[in-house]
Automatic annotation (TrEMBL):
Pfam families: Methyltransf_19 (PF04672)
Record-linked InterPro entries: SAM-dependent_MTases_sf, SAM_dep_MeTrfase_SAV2177_type
One of the protein's GO biological processes: methylation
Source organism per UniProt: Actinomadura monticuli
Keywords for the protein's UniProt record, in alphabetical order: Methyltransferase, Transferase
Protein name, UniProt field: SAM-dependent methyltransferase
Keyword Transport attached: no
């Protein structure tokens, strides 16, 4: 299982998010869906594939988020 930050919904927000992470030891690299798929290219993704975290097989009946992309995080599970 993996998650990755994406800037796709608002590419212009990357600078602001980077400022938040700058004083920490963490790093921020928001990537596009295509870039993330390239990183996991050696894996077969389990359905539903690469999806926003709130849409990736929620446990039980979960209310649909109107703006799932506002989580800015994509998730997936891959098999070799």
């Amino acid at each position: 299982m993996f998650t990755h930050i994406t800037q796709e919904p608002e590419p212009e927000s990357g600078g602001d998010v980077g400022k938040v992470f700058k004083p920490t030891s963490g790093h921020f690299w928001g990537r596009s869906r295509a870039e993330i798929l390239g990183i996991v290219a050696g894996f077969d993704l389990v359905e539903p594939g690469l999806a926003y975290t709130s849409q990736w097989r929620p446990d039980g009946p979960a209310p649909a988020l109107a703006d799932a992309e506002r989580t800015f995080t994509l998730a997936g599970v891959g098999r070799r």
